[in-house]
Amino acid sequence: MKVITDNGEYELLESLSKGNSKAFDIIFISYYPKVKKYINGFIHDEVEAENISQDIFMRLWDNRSNAKNIMNLNSYLYMISRNESLKVIAKSIKYKDISEVANIYNPESTDNDTFYNELLDVIQHEIDKMPERQKQVFEMSRRDGMSNDEISKTLNISKRTVEKHICNALSDLKKVLLIYITILIYIF
Q1: At residue 124, does pLDDT exceed 50?
Q2: Considering the domain 6-93 in this protein, what is its CATH number?
Q3: Are 148 and 159 in contact (CB under 8 A)?
Q4: Which of 76, 83, 95, 101 has fewest C-beta within 10 Å?
């Protein structure tokens, strides 16, 4: 559902490009809640979603002279919101456990279904490429929820070896996901 009619959108963007703050206010009031909700659906952080949304609208205002070149405001804001969300996710991969990264996306959200499934495929493909023992330890840890001590006893290996396998697996997955998300940012 369009928030503003095509004709009204064109007039608002034209007014915005001339510096009309009332046109910006109308755009902001009409689109801000939708943009914030969309971003929060990606990153699941209400405060960060609010900050990103505000930054997007500040950029729209700062570049208002180019607003008349926007063909479809809804699509434009969707694209920017997605890209900014992906940047935040890519940045967070460096600092989060891979299981947290995989949970960033809500599989019940229709907006994110395709992306979520692609992400799971990338993760599974990378897990399948791991050396057999590393894969076994990683799956016991993440899929089965076993502690390092439990894995160590079950496989008859040292706890340090378990930790090393998990660390290597997470490192490999983070690298691949960072590349994947970076590519998505440039595609969209």
Answers
A1: yes
A2: 1.10.1740.10
A3: yes
A4: 95
